UniProtKB/TrEMBL annotation:
GO biological process: L-amino acid transport
Lineage, opening ranks: Bacteria, Pseudomonadati, Pseudomonadota, Alphaproteobacteria, Rhodobacterales
Family per record: Belongs to the ABC transporter superfamily.
Domain ABC transporter residues, every copy: 4-237
Pfam families linked: ABC_tran (PF00005)
Gene3D superfamilies found in the cross-reference section: P-loop containing nucleotide triphosphate hydrolases (3.40.50.300)
Entry keywords, A to Z: Amino-acid transport, ATP-binding, Nucleotide-binding, Transport
Molecular function, one GO term: ATP binding
Protein name: LIV-I protein F
Length: 237
Protein backbone atom coordinates (compact mmCIF):
# COMPACT_ATOMS: atom_id res chain seq x y z
CA UNK A 1 0.00 0.00 0.00
CA UNK A 2 1.21 3.48 -0.84
CA UNK A 3 2.18 5.68 2.11
CA UNK A 4 3.51 8.72 0.26
CA UNK A 5 2.29 9.63 -3.22
CA UNK A 6 3.68 12.46 -5.30
CA UNK A 7 1.92 13.50 -8.47
CA UNK A 8 3.02 16.05 -11.06
CA UNK A 9 5.12 17.95 -8.52
CA UNK A 10 6.74 21.20 -9.67
CA UNK A 11 8.87 23.39 -7.41
CA UNK A 12 11.89 25.65 -7.54
CA UNK A 13 13.56 28.74 -6.18
CA UNK A 14 11.98 32.02 -7.17
CA UNK A 15 11.44 31.74 -10.88
CA UNK A 16 14.01 28.96 -11.36
CA UNK A 17 12.16 25.68 -11.89
CA UNK A 18 13.93 22.64 -10.39
CA UNK A 19 11.31 19.89 -9.98
CA UNK A 20 9.47 19.49 -13.27
CA UNK A 21 6.68 17.01 -12.78
CA UNK A 22 7.83 14.45 -10.22
CA UNK A 23 5.67 11.32 -9.95
CA UNK A 24 6.53 8.69 -7.39
CA UNK A 25 4.96 6.40 -4.85
CA UNK A 26 6.58 5.17 -1.64
CA UNK A 27 5.14 1.93 -0.30
CA UNK A 28 4.37 1.67 3.41
CA UNK A 29 7.14 -0.17 5.23
CA UNK A 30 9.54 0.14 2.31
CA UNK A 31 13.00 1.58 2.13
CA UNK A 32 12.94 3.68 -1.03
CA UNK A 33 16.00 5.28 -2.57
CA UNK A 34 16.39 8.40 -4.68
CA UNK A 35 19.51 8.46 -6.80
CA UNK A 36 20.86 11.19 -9.04
CA UNK A 37 23.82 13.38 -9.84
CA UNK A 38 24.64 16.54 -7.92
CA UNK A 39 22.20 19.31 -8.62
CA UNK A 40 19.45 17.11 -10.09
CA UNK A 41 16.95 18.21 -7.44
CA UNK A 42 17.10 15.50 -4.77
CA UNK A 43 17.36 17.89 -1.82
CA UNK A 44 14.77 20.18 -3.39
CA UNK A 45 12.41 17.20 -3.62
CA UNK A 46 12.95 16.24 0.04
CA UNK A 47 12.47 19.83 1.20
CA UNK A 48 9.28 20.11 -0.84
CA UNK A 49 7.97 16.87 0.68
CA UNK A 50 8.72 18.35 4.13
CA UNK A 51 6.95 21.62 3.30
CA UNK A 52 10.05 23.81 3.40
CA UNK A 53 9.53 24.70 -0.27
CA UNK A 54 6.06 25.44 -1.64
CA UNK A 55 5.30 23.59 -4.86
CA UNK A 56 4.03 25.54 -7.87
CA UNK A 57 1.99 22.55 -9.06
CA UNK A 58 1.21 18.98 -8.14
CA UNK A 59 0.02 17.02 -5.14
CA UNK A 60 1.57 15.22 -2.17
CA UNK A 61 -0.52 12.76 -0.20
CA UNK A 62 0.38 10.86 2.95
CA UNK A 63 -1.77 7.86 3.75
CA UNK A 64 -4.33 9.16 1.25
CA UNK A 65 -4.53 12.60 2.90
CA UNK A 66 -3.57 15.66 0.86
CA UNK A 67 -0.67 17.39 2.68
CA UNK A 68 0.42 19.65 -0.20
CA UNK A 69 -0.53 22.85 1.62
CA UNK A 70 0.30 21.74 5.14
CA UNK A 71 3.08 23.51 7.12
CA UNK A 72 6.29 21.68 7.96
CA UNK A 73 5.10 21.48 11.55
CA UNK A 74 1.78 20.02 10.42
CA UNK A 75 3.58 17.40 8.36
CA UNK A 76 5.79 16.46 11.30
CA UNK A 77 2.64 15.99 13.37
CA UNK A 78 1.33 13.64 10.66
CA UNK A 79 4.42 11.46 10.96
CA UNK A 80 7.06 12.91 8.63
CA UNK A 81 10.61 13.38 9.88
CA UNK A 82 13.59 14.77 8.00
CA UNK A 83 17.31 14.45 8.60
CA UNK A 84 18.79 17.09 6.31
CA UNK A 85 22.13 16.97 4.58
CA UNK A 86 24.64 18.37 7.05
CA UNK A 87 22.55 16.98 9.91
CA UNK A 88 21.96 20.14 11.96
CA UNK A 89 22.45 18.86 15.48
CA UNK A 90 23.12 21.32 18.31
CA UNK A 91 26.90 21.28 18.62
CA UNK A 92 27.03 23.06 21.99
CA UNK A 93 24.57 20.68 23.63
CA UNK A 94 25.38 17.15 24.77
CA UNK A 95 24.03 14.08 23.01
CA UNK A 96 21.48 13.65 25.80
CA UNK A 97 20.39 17.30 25.62
CA UNK A 98 20.05 17.05 21.84
CA UNK A 99 17.66 14.15 22.34
CA UNK A 100 15.81 15.94 25.14
CA UNK A 101 15.23 18.88 22.78
CA UNK A 102 13.71 16.48 20.28
CA UNK A 103 11.45 15.01 22.95
CA UNK A 104 10.08 18.33 24.21
CA UNK A 105 7.04 17.94 21.97
CA UNK A 106 5.82 14.99 24.05
CA UNK A 107 3.17 15.97 26.59
CA UNK A 108 4.63 14.56 29.81
CA UNK A 109 7.97 13.92 31.49
CA UNK A 110 7.04 10.26 31.80
CA UNK A 111 6.46 9.94 28.05
CA UNK A 112 9.73 11.75 27.33
CA UNK A 113 11.55 9.29 29.59
CA UNK A 114 9.92 6.26 28.00
CA UNK A 115 10.70 7.50 24.50
CA UNK A 116 14.31 8.29 25.45
CA UNK A 117 14.72 4.74 26.74
CA UNK A 118 13.23 3.34 23.54
CA UNK A 119 15.57 5.41 21.37
CA UNK A 120 18.62 4.31 23.34
CA UNK A 121 17.47 0.72 23.10
CA UNK A 122 17.29 1.09 19.32
CA UNK A 123 20.58 3.02 19.15
CA UNK A 124 22.76 1.65 21.96
CA UNK A 125 25.75 3.22 20.24
CA UNK A 126 24.73 6.53 21.81
CA UNK A 127 24.69 5.31 25.41
CA UNK A 128 28.40 5.70 26.15
CA UNK A 129 28.54 9.18 24.57
CA UNK A 130 25.43 10.74 26.14
CA UNK A 131 27.40 13.40 28.01
CA UNK A 132 29.62 14.30 25.08
CA UNK A 133 28.99 17.57 23.34
CA UNK A 134 27.50 17.33 19.81
CA UNK A 135 30.29 19.43 18.34
CA UNK A 136 33.07 16.99 19.25
CA UNK A 137 31.38 13.90 17.79
CA UNK A 138 32.71 12.30 14.63
CA UNK A 139 30.68 12.82 11.45
CA UNK A 140 29.28 9.31 11.81
CA UNK A 141 28.28 9.81 15.44
CA UNK A 142 26.61 13.08 14.50
CA UNK A 143 24.64 11.26 11.82
CA UNK A 144 23.57 8.58 14.30
CA UNK A 145 22.51 11.31 16.72
CA UNK A 146 20.58 13.10 13.98
CA UNK A 147 18.76 9.85 13.14
CA UNK A 148 18.05 9.31 16.85
CA UNK A 149 16.68 12.82 17.19
CA UNK A 150 14.41 12.35 14.20
CA UNK A 151 12.92 9.32 16.00
CA UNK A 152 11.82 11.50 18.92
CA UNK A 153 8.54 12.26 17.17
CA UNK A 154 7.99 8.54 16.47
CA UNK A 155 7.69 9.12 12.70
CA UNK A 156 6.03 6.85 10.16
CA UNK A 157 8.12 8.24 7.28
CA UNK A 158 11.75 9.11 7.82
CA UNK A 159 13.55 11.09 5.12
CA UNK A 160 17.35 10.86 5.11
CA UNK A 161 19.30 13.21 2.85
CA UNK A 162 22.74 11.79 2.03
CA UNK A 163 23.37 10.26 5.45
CA UNK A 164 26.81 8.95 4.50
CA UNK A 165 28.21 12.24 3.24
CA UNK A 166 31.67 12.79 4.72
CA UNK A 167 31.54 9.66 6.88
CA UNK A 168 34.27 7.05 7.17
CA UNK A 169 33.49 3.61 5.66
CA UNK A 170 33.38 1.67 8.95
CA UNK A 171 30.62 3.95 10.25
CA UNK A 172 28.77 3.75 6.94
CA UNK A 173 28.48 -0.01 7.60
CA UNK A 174 27.28 0.75 11.11
CA UNK A 175 24.59 3.11 9.82
CA UNK A 176 23.42 0.40 7.42
CA UNK A 177 23.12 -1.99 10.39
CA UNK A 178 21.29 0.63 12.46
CA UNK A 179 18.75 1.25 9.71
CA UNK A 180 18.20 -2.50 9.21
CA UNK A 181 17.64 -2.84 12.96
CA UNK A 182 15.20 0.09 13.02
CA UNK A 183 13.29 -1.53 10.21
CA UNK A 184 12.78 -4.57 12.43
CA UNK A 185 12.00 -2.75 15.67
CA UNK A 186 9.72 0.00 14.35
CA UNK A 187 6.93 0.46 11.86
CA UNK A 188 9.05 2.74 9.73
CA UNK A 189 9.13 3.75 6.07
CA UNK A 190 12.37 5.35 4.89
CA UNK A 191 13.00 7.61 1.92
CA UNK A 192 16.71 7.78 1.29
CA UNK A 193 18.67 10.19 -0.89
CA UNK A 194 22.15 8.95 -1.64
CA UNK A 195 25.07 9.10 -3.98
CA UNK A 196 26.83 6.03 -2.56
CA UNK A 197 25.56 3.13 -4.62
CA UNK A 198 26.55 0.39 -2.20
CA UNK A 199 24.70 2.15 0.63
CA UNK A 200 21.50 2.47 -1.34
CA UNK A 201 21.90 -1.08 -2.66
CA UNK A 202 22.24 -2.43 0.89
CA UNK A 203 19.03 -0.76 2.04
CA UNK A 204 16.56 0.18 -0.70
CA UNK A 205 13.80 -2.08 -2.04
CA UNK A 206 13.28 0.31 -4.93
CA UNK A 207 15.35 3.24 -6.12
CA UNK A 208 13.97 6.14 -8.14
CA UNK A 209 16.34 7.82 -10.57
CA UNK A 210 16.06 11.59 -10.78
CA UNK A 211 17.45 13.54 -13.71
CA UNK A 212 16.93 17.22 -14.31
CA UNK A 213 13.94 17.45 -12.03
CA UNK A 214 11.98 14.42 -13.23
CA UNK A 215 11.91 10.74 -12.33
CA UNK A 216 13.35 8.88 -15.29
CA UNK A 217 13.14 5.33 -13.98
CA UNK A 218 13.33 2.91 -11.08
CA UNK A 219 16.00 0.37 -10.19
CA UNK A 220 15.55 -2.89 -8.30
CA UNK A 221 18.23 -4.02 -5.81
CA UNK A 222 19.46 -6.46 -8.47
CA UNK A 223 19.82 -3.67 -11.02
CA UNK A 224 21.49 -1.48 -8.39
CA UNK A 225 24.13 -4.16 -7.92
CA UNK A 226 25.07 -4.02 -11.59
CA UNK A 227 27.30 -0.99 -12.18
CA UNK A 228 26.71 -1.09 -15.95
CA UNK A 229 22.94 -0.83 -15.52
CA UNK A 230 23.32 2.02 -13.04
CA UNK A 231 25.76 3.84 -15.30
CA UNK A 232 23.36 3.51 -18.18
CA UNK A 233 20.47 4.91 -16.13
CA UNK A 234 22.15 7.58 -14.08
CA UNK A 235 25.64 8.05 -15.38
CA UNK A 236 26.96 7.18 -11.92
CA UNK A 237 29.26 4.32 -10.99
N1 LIG B 1 18.29 28.06 -2.22
C1 LIG B 1 18.50 27.93 -3.54
N2 LIG B 1 18.32 28.96 -4.39
C2 LIG B 1 18.51 28.81 -5.72
N3 LIG B 1 18.88 27.67 -6.32
C3 LIG B 1 19.07 26.60 -5.53
C4 LIG B 1 18.90 26.67 -4.10
N4 LIG B 1 19.16 25.44 -3.59
C5 LIG B 1 19.49 24.66 -4.63
N5 LIG B 1 19.43 25.34 -5.79
C6 LIG B 1 19.69 24.79 -7.15
O1 LIG B 1 18.72 23.82 -7.42
C7 LIG B 1 19.29 22.75 -8.15
C8 LIG B 1 18.96 21.44 -7.44
O2 LIG B 1 19.60 21.43 -6.17
P1 LIG B 1 19.43 20.26 -5.12
O3 LIG B 1 20.17 20.64 -3.90
O4 LIG B 1 18.01 19.90 -5.01
O5 LIG B 1 20.20 19.08 -5.87
P2 LIG B 1 20.66 17.68 -5.34
O6 LIG B 1 20.27 16.71 -6.38
O7 LIG B 1 20.19 17.46 -3.97
O8 LIG B 1 22.22 17.83 -5.37
P3 LIG B 1 23.28 17.69 -4.19
O9 LIG B 1 23.55 16.25 -4.10
O10 LIG B 1 24.44 18.47 -4.71
O11 LIG B 1 22.67 18.29 -2.97
C9 LIG B 1 20.77 23.06 -8.27
O12 LIG B 1 21.00 23.59 -9.56
C10 LIG B 1 21.02 24.08 -7.21
O13 LIG B 1 22.05 24.94 -7.58
Amino acid sequence: MTLLAIEGLHAGYGRIPILQGIDMAVARGSFTGVLGHNGMGKTTLMRTIMGQITPTAGRITLDGQDITRLSTHGRAAKGLAYVPQGREIFSNLTVEENLQMGLLGLPSRAEQKTEMARILEDLPRLKPILTRSGGVLSGGEQQILAIARSLCTNPTLLILDEPTEGIQPSIVEEIIDILHALRKSRDLTVLLVEQKLDFIEALADTTFVIQRGTITGTLSPKEMSDPDTVREFVGLS
